[in-house]
Amino acid sequence: MRQINFVVIFVICLALVLFGIENTESATIHVVRGVNIEAPLCIELMISLGVGAVLAWVFSVWVQVQGYFNINPQVQQREMRIQQLEEDVERYRVELEDLQPMLPGTANKDAGTEEAVA
């Protein structure tokens, strides 16, 4: 995947360089009424691409930040239920271990296995 990303970025940068070499004539940008910027077309293109890249990065960071704070309530409920069930299982395991010596036939089975081993 990294190789594909590298190739895509390389091709885009190469296209921009070739476009910049071919378009060195001056162009005017009308920012707001009364404010005009005149610069070579390749410089204007690089500036606009840089601004676009920064905006894309900011949007990406913003989406990730929203993801950290927007935890699905259903997921939270399921996690709480799982935790409760794990606690119940542990409690039942302890109760079963406490009750196991009292079960009928448990002492006989242990004695029989000891004799077979000896």
From TrEMBL:
It comes from the Bacteria. Keywords: Cell membrane, Coiled coil, Membrane, Transmembrane, Transmembrane helix. The keyword Transmembrane helix applies. Residues 75-102 form a coiled coil. Pfam families: LapA_dom. GO terms for cellular component: plasma membrane. The chain crosses the membrane at residues 45-71. Residues 22-91 form the Lipopolysaccharide assembly protein A domain. This is LapA family protein. It comes from Adonisia turfae CCMR0081.
